[in-house]
UniProtKB/TrEMBL annotation:
This is rhamnogalacturonan endolyase. GO terms for cellular component: extracellular region. The keyword Lipoprotein does not apply. It is an enzyme of class 4 (lyase). InterPro entries: Carb-bd-like_fold (IPR013784), Gal_mutarotase_sf_dom (IPR011013), Galactose-bd-like_sf (IPR008979), GH-type_carb-bd (IPR014718), Polysacch_Lyase_4 (IPR051850), RG-lyase_II (IPR029413), RG-lyase_III (IPR029411), Rhamnogal_lyase (IPR010325). Residues 1-25 form the signal peptide. Keywords: Lyase, Secreted, Signal. It catalyses: Endotype eliminative cleavage of L-alpha-rhamnopyranosyl-(1->4)-alpha-D-galactopyranosyluronic acid bonds of rhamnogalacturonan I domains in ramified hairy regions of pectin leaving L-rhamnopyranose at the reducing end and 4-deoxy-4,5-unsaturated D-galactopyranosyluronic acid at the non-reducing end. It is found in: Secreted. Its main location: secreted. Pfam families: CBM-like, fn3_3, Rhamnogal_lyase. It comes from Salvia divinorum (Maria pastora).
Amino acid sequence: MAMCRPPSLPIILLCFFFLLTMTYAARRLVPLGNQESSPPVKLHVTDTHVEIDNGIVKLTLMNPSGLITSIGYKGVDNILEYRNTEGRRGYWDIVWSRPDRNGSHFDTLHSTSLRVIKESDDQVEISFTKTWDRSRDGEVPLNIDKRYILLRGSSGFYSYAIFEHMEGWPDLNIDEARIAFKLHQDMFHYMVISDNKQRIMPSDMDRKVGDTLDYREAVLITHPSNPRLRGEVDDKYQYSCNNDDSHVHGWISSTGQRIGFWVVMPGDEFRGGGPVKQDLTSHAGPTSLATFFSAHYAGLNYGVRLRNGEHWKKVFGPVFVYLNSDRNNNSTAIWEDAKRQTAQERKKWPYDFPQSPDFPDANQRGAIRGRLLVHDKETAVAKSAYVGLAPPGDVGSWQDDSKGYQFWTRTDDRGYFSIKGVRAGTYNLYAWVPGVIGDYKHHGEITIRPGKQVEIGDAVYTSPRNGPTLWEIGIPDRTAAEFYVPDPNPLLVNKLFINHTEKYRQYGLWNRYTDLYPHNDLVYTVGASDYRKDWFFAHVNRHVNKEYVPTTWQIVFYLRKVVRRGSYTLRVALASSSFAEIQVGINNNNNQHPHFSTGRIGRDNAIARHGIHGLYKLYSVTISGCQLVEGRNTIYLRQARGGNPFTGVLYDYIRLEAPPQR
Ligand SMILES: *[C@@H]1O[C@H](CO)[C@@H](O)[C@H](O)[C@H]1NC(C)=O
Ligand SMILES: *[C@@H]1O[C@H](CO)[C@@H](O)[C@H](O)[C@H]1NC(C)=O
Ligand SMILES: *[C@@H]1O[C@H](CO)[C@@H](O)[C@H](O)[C@H]1NC(C)=O
Ligand SMILES: *[C@@H]1O[C@H](CO)[C@@H](O)[C@H](O)[C@H]1NC(C)=O
């Protein structure tokens, strides 16, 4: 302001004008619905409830349990299901057990104490806490701090929670953690998971009066209130998504003014299992979930396991619950706006407004960058590879981890990656490359420090390979999506997935194997068969006389020459396994003495849950040249465990390598 120094009137006036114009310009840049034009956030606490109102959204919570009893928006007092008891409308929940005791507990984490953390015109943040000590023997040995935030001018609210297990406390298993919302049943019938997954849903009552199928979550809708839904299957697992495909989902009301309700994941660091872990999203009820981790598509060993009195603390969230509407009641516009808002929230991550010291802001975080190369037949840059920091562990251990934080990205076309906003701490750098088998782990642990960037330069992943490919089946991408996915039984259809890229979400495909192969098992002939048409996506049991019996698949291939003293390598990459055992026979189908067996593997249950993948596993089987013959050879793959329709594996990719070449 040096130019203002000479105090002559014209100049002062000029400066005044200048300031006025500047302020005006600055004002004009403020987007609609932002702070100054909106009313201040108001907090109102009574003995039984806490109300936070920013003039757009009004959130009401129970005091001191911290459960959500109502969300008001656009003249609707409560978009949650008011007919449910107050404790069953919107709540954090976990499933926990103590390894030294029987019993598993579904727990909605009732807090015992309320604290107002911040109360200003621009932000209200409140905390509901619950602390454990040895006198609370039957309760979960965790300290819980549930937070809710409303910002001025924001059409929604934020929630996060801090779970802490103190040193010396009893061992604990936490199998899942999430926030659940039960929406108003008369208002919400239209569910949106993505651009190509949205539909009118059956009601809770439609499910109750329908026919339960092979498990209670799957119901054939027989007497719906909306006759167009008659004869369809409804199953919440059909709406599961990979974490990296799932940053916003929810519902649009279909009565009165159209209102959108959205669960937004602004960040991913607190979600367990890495970018392709699948979890539930929204489903009939109407229900919407913010799932932080669960055993779904992973198995019973998955989850937070606290042993030997270890200290553990993790922040889950914040997640954003967004409400919106459209002047013309246009549902497409409401969904488009929800996606736009999600992109904005993700841009703001890591948020700077949460008040807990356990949630570090951008300045307290670090970064890493580098380039990934992959060496298979030759060395090349790894394009679109998944690269992530996750807790130190074995190669691929991030798949099972929900205890720590994970930070993932994809490499660009030149193999470069950069991960910002990483919490300070010690990690391993992990990666995998679509199109190439196996898992990468960078040697040595990586320490991320606040405000610092780690440069790792070029990292080279050497993919397992002993010799040139003789033949291969499928694409090494950790899913079975490229294989033959049958049409569902016409009496068991979810119309959303007809002619859909996610055809595998249909119910009951496991039984189609028996329809296609009633007597003899699948035989795949290298060079003549096409895996898109001739390789059934799931190696399951056959349904015979009310029993599920093991099946043996054959891969037939011709070798012109065999190196009798050479070692051949069979690579079998699995996209999923559930209570299965794959036995491999080489030109010999002797069940008593298979050449190789995986042993019993997996509990990810992806077949029953319509996932096209669960957890990834790679087996390398050495085959001696003297087991092979010139001419026709057969590899037998026997899934040896019968008894159940869902027992089996999803193959990702199979390859036979010739002996190493000098
Ligand atoms: C669990 O229950 C079984 C059978 O009811 C009982 O035999 C066992 O002692 C119990 N274990 C524990 C740790 O309580
Ligand atoms: C949107 O729906 C509300 C409630 O049904 C109605 O009052 C309003 O006129 C509708 N707006 C338009 C543009 O149709
Ligand atoms: C609804 O909104 C979408 C997206 O903004 C737009 O393309 C479409 O034309 C709108 N439909 C109507 C009937 O206005
Ligand atoms: C699915 O695609 C087929 C062939 O393209 C078409 O005939 C059929 O009408 C489609 N079905 C639906 C429900 O879209």
